[in-house]
Amino acid sequence: MNRDRPKLRVGLMLDSYAIPAWYLRMLERIQASDYATVELVILNSLGSGPKSSLSQRILRNLPIFLFHAHRVFETVVSKPTPNAFTERDASEILATVPALTVTPKKTKFSDRFEDQDIEKIRSYNLDVIIRCGFRILRGKVLQTPRYGVWSYHHGDNLVNRGGPAGFWEVMEGHPTTGSVLQILSEDLDNGLVLYHSLSATDPVLVNRNRNTYYWKTLSFIPRKLKELYDLGGEEFMRRVRAQNNQISFYSHRLYTQQPRNSELVVPLARNLLRLVFRQVYNRCIVDQWQLLFDLRDGLSTSLWRFRKLMPPRDRSWADPHVLSKDGKYYIFIEEFVFRKGKGHIALLVMDEQGNLQLQGKVLERPYHLSYPFVFEWGGNYYMIPESAENRAIELYKCIVFPHTWEFCRTLMSNVKAVDATLLYHQQTWWLFTNIEENPGSSSWDELFLFSADNPLSESWTPHPCNPIISDVRRARPAGAIFEHHGILYRPSQDCSKCYGKAVRINQIIKLNEREYEEREVTTIEPLWDKDISRIHTLNHVGRLTVADGVQWRSRFITWLVACFRVKNDNLRLSVVSQSY
User: Concatenated DSSP letters for 223-243?
Assistant: First the structure.
């Protein structure tokens, strides 16, 4: 990678310098980079369209009254922070960038540029134009920059073409909401896809759904510009075309940006019922995580064989990770006490016959801890608990096994990373973790990979393909990577419909300093027991296979138990082992 080469020359298409906060954050990242710089702003002289009188707007909006009423309702009940759509002024960051004001030829839905404007744009010798303004583009302008006009489609172009962004996914109950970066073509939302990602759809609120995944998407263009710069145009476009060489058909309807009243009566009523149901559910029900285990030779793959380890009613047990030592299994878990509102790391010890001892708390910090990834190295035991609330990946060393753990060092700082998972493979230590790269986005969506020569390193090298997965259905780690019959498998969480919907098992195909590839081979869904509604961790050591699952509990009874525990905090906790 030659950083001495000139930066990529980027043009921006804007309706005005007043732009949403997520877009300004993206421009700041580009302007601060060593791979691209904005060389031209192409301003729409018509802005976002001519202003109408109040009476004209009322008459025009009567057929879409429900759509606007719903937007007003959500503005009142949902105020996401930080708000991706807060208006920001981009004139300062673009103060030294020349601006070209154009008046497009308007048809019913699209804009075309005059030939003289095309020639003016060509004179800037642009590599890429980023569209964040104008309407649907047609004509020669699409071929003006060297590597095309890049545009976001905030929806999955295989499922939802048209708009509004993030709206129909909520109304129709889609488990995921897609987002695409593409090189525009004459075919609506069917250009060459540069980047594709899936987020979990918010179950009831469009504002919250849009806010989360718009913050995520601001990273797409900087990532692909950097890749274009590093690879060079020829290799970059070769890879893009290779990734787009499969035929695909779009067989859903073309959604309209402003749905009419007749389209929305049933979806809005259904969404209102979902909203009411969730409010009642949250007030009456608490989700209690419990442990599930099976002891037998080899990996246990029949979940109906698993027995339950039930925590007391005032807490959850989740994220089991295991060390085997002297014929015993040391099961480290997240213990979440409801009245405290944060988790700590606790320990259970099991022998080969399944006899269990609860050892209690082994690690607590002022902030939430979970996902206690434990491993042995150099004759010592270490733990990497999730400490995202402290914006760090922390490493702890066991001083007196198994109860006394001491802070060792920070592997990464100033990062909101969850479920860090280590793997030693081909003389290299690999660290897999989900990262919330942009405040306001989700930690469920994107898996990042790093490497180092030892697990105690404070200098981890990011993989060039980061994020290696951008899909809420299989990004977030769900336990230690394990080998079975000579094949490496990575358990991952499917959080597409809810947190902990299922565990997906992915075979690692390629893992080296330049490439990462995996494919899903099987899924564990909570279907074997009517009382288990979710699952999100799986680990296997020796003869023990352990997982976790959710069972619904009455919030009132849980509250009564919690009150009792306050006065009897030293009460010996009982464990119920239930087989079926």
Answer: HHHHHHHHH-HHHHHHHHHHH
> In the structure encoding, which two tokens stand for residue 283, read together?
């007030």
Spell out the domains of the chain, with CATH numbers in brackets: 8-259 (3.40.50.170), 286-566 (2.115.10.20)
pTM for the full model?
0.93
| Cβ neighbour number for residue 437 with a 10 Å cutoff | 20
SS3 110: strand
d(CA 483, CA 469): 21
Q: How far apart, in whole angstroms, are the C-alpha atoms of residue 305 and residue 311? A: 19
- Which amino acid does the sequence have at 527? L
Closest CA to 539 of 280, 270, 269, 320: 320
Q: Is 139 exposed, middle or buried (0-12, 13-18, 19+ CB in 10 A)?
A: middle
- Count of CB atoms situated within 10 Å of the CB of 33: 15
Numbers of helices and strands, H then E, in the chain = 10, 34
| Long-range CB contacts for residues 448-453, cutoff 8 Å, separation at least 24 | 448/417, 449/516, 450/412, 451/513, 452/428, 453/428, 453/429
Per run of 10 residues, the mean pLDDT along the chain (length 580 residues) is 82 97 98 97 80 64 90 90 96 97 90 95 98 93 96 90 91 95 86 96 96 97 98 96 90 87 94 92 91 96 95 94 97 95 97 93 98 97 98 98 97 98 97 97 98 97 97 98 97 95 98 97 96 96 97 77 54 43
Q: Residue 501's closest CA among 158, 198, 216?
A: 198
Residue tagged 């994020």 (tokens): 467
First to last CA, the chain: 59
